[in-house]
Each structure stands twice: as C-alpha cells, then as structure tokens.
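A common beginner's mistake is to predict each chain separately and then try to dock the pieces by hand. The better habit, illustrated here, is to supply every component at once so that their relative placement is modeled jointly.
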Amino acid sequence: ILNVEQSPQSLHVQEGDSTNFTCSFPSSNFYALHWYRWETAKSPEALFVMTLNGDEKKKGRISATLNTKEGYSYLYIKGSQPEDSATYLCASALDSGGGADGLTFGKGTHLIIQP
Amino acid sequence: GAGVSQSPRYKVAKRGQDVALRCDPISGHVSLFWYQQALGQGPEFLTYFQNEAQLDKSGLPSDRFFAERPEGSVSTLKIQRTQQEDSAVYLCASSSGLAGSNIQYFGAGTRLSVL
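With all components supplied together, the output reads:
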C-alpha cells in the first residue's frame, strides 16, 4: 500500500449504535499514525497519535487500535451520539531519518449519526 | 486565542490574480505545515518549516506557490497567477516538536475559489 486508504467513505449510523472504520497505511518506514476528527466549519481536531504495534488508545467513547506490521488501524465509536457526526481522517507519518515530515492523509470517513 | 489562526477564511480570486494566505501558529510552536485539500480528497502536504527554515517544499505543486516564515512565527502561503485547479481549502498546522509523533494543531483553513 503506497497511500493511506480509509473505508468506508461514508457511513450512516443510528444514534446509540456502535460503529468502526478502517485506515490502511504503508507499513514500511512507519513512524506514527494520527487520527483526526473534522467537523464542518471547524478545525481538524487530534484524537490519537499512535506509534507502537498493538497500541490501543481510548478517549471517552472513542478508541483506536494499531497494527504496524500489517499496516492498519481501526477507530471505534461506542454508543454513537449526534455530536459524533464529522469526517474522521487518519494520517501516516513516515520515518525519514530525522525531523518532522508532513502527514499523508486518507480521504476520510464521513460519519452521519441519525437521531 | 490559543489556537492556530488562519486568514482570510474565504477568498475568491479571478484567474491570474495573486493571493496571500496567512497562518498564525500557536505561540512557541517550532514546526509549521501547510496542506491543500481539494474537494473530495484528504489534505495533501505542501511544505514544512522548522522555525524560519523551510526544510521541505516537495509538495508545492508548481513554482507559482511560495511560502515563507521569516521570523519563525507567522507564515504566508502565496500563490501567483492563480488557476482554477488551485481552488481548494488550504490548511495550516503547527506542532511543538520535531517528530512525526507530535500532534499537529490545525487552523480552520482558508477556502480559495478561483473563478
């Protein structure tokens, strides 16, 4: 995988249901995997940054897992609420040998929570 | 405010016009990034500054694009002789550290429409 790919592209979920979506990224030269939430008319907001294989992170009802060997991450939302409606972006940072690099983003998963 | 500030929020330009987009990062943040998000795509990396030094400009799409950060704080992205394909949201992000594992804090973006 050369690019960061996210699926599904969009998702409609009933309020109260749990959901999850996927991010696939290049496993070679991996450095870090970022998840962002982007609500309309607002700034993208960082959810998680993960670096270690097997990492699991949690923030309220949202959690994420990371598999660096096979190059994928899952984002889970438990008990979806209307305020969870947003575009969820994942981004990969590569190990370039020193210093920061720009992130490579997927196209995002557009999540709509239906009351 | 404590966040990343971008101005203007919206810019309409006639084809061939020059534009300048401003980014005020979080005070003290060393790293500053510019991204371009075309409709239906994820953000794509344009350029990266470490303090006042532009360390990576590999993502700039053409020599019409120019970025600067002369005092290591505020940054300006300039686009000369704008074309319709330059229409996009331009995002600025800053980070306190140098590594790809540092959270990037985003502004709300400048939406550029070239007519």
